[in-house]
Input
Amino acid sequence: MDFTSTPDRPAVAAVVSGSAPIVSMSYQEDGSRLFVASESDNTLRVIDCLTGKPSEAVAVPLRCDRERLHFVTTTHHPNCVLFAGKGSPTQPLGQRNAINYWSIHDNKILRKFRGHTDTVSSISVSPADDKFLTSSKDRTIRLWNVEEAGSMAQLQLPASATGTPRAVFDSTGLVFAVSAGIAGGKGQYVHLYDARQYGAGGFAELTVSPEGMQQAITSHIGAAGVEYSPTAAWTSLQFNASGNQLLAGTSEGLAIVLDGFEATVQRVVAPTFKSSAGAVCCFTSDDKTVLMGNPDGSISCFHVDTGAIVKTLTGHSGPISAVATNPKYAQFASACSSTALWSW
Output
């Protein structure tokens, strides 16, 4: 995605209006559909990425009020998604915070994955098979298979870790990364696991130090005149398509590009102004650009290698709450309450 070679692009290809703030978006692996979740009204919308309109097969938003839809992730099945629910306060604690395998074809929950005792913070589906990882505020990481109700494995954070962990597969499904804060403001753990031999523990146990983070902040965005904490909690984690870089978002709105093998900080980029809502960011599918949604409704397009803003996109009427890149087509999506599909 070379945003510098064609000044008039990217451009809005379509806008699908909505009435509730969008909390997450996930593209189908063939790039044909986009699933859009709104937590406040518990709805899931399905957008046809080729026409820019609601999918004819699911023209009316689906609702899941009982489970209290939190966020959504696509699976390898074209008509099934995984979504994290918060459950009802009237339910027993062990039945809340379930992950649900939902058939959008007939609007049925086919399987529930229970075990987490607090809010699920992330779901990552393996590109290689039907396994998926979940992380939760209960300080655990769990590995599941969509064909089995119980978890295959569980990782409990050690006492030296703090905050909410994150877990994500790389683009091959052979490696996954787990991150968590280090108690006492001593930085961030990033542990890498072989997905086929996860029981042996991490093959690389890496640390992002506050000193390294502060040096990168000072070097890359120090001139902005805004102070950012080098120990701010990480709120998201993503591998790029090549698997050689990680993108972490922080609670203060920073996006951190890390070496995918050594976890050294390669680049730090910031929104148009400091955000307390957490970073809204993702890699583009060619690994050249970091897209960052801003509180003022704009989208900053940062060059991964230089950190320079190569394009600023405008059009949304409210803060950007989600961004996602189409894995197959020259398209990405951004959302506030409405969803925009951008092409170039």
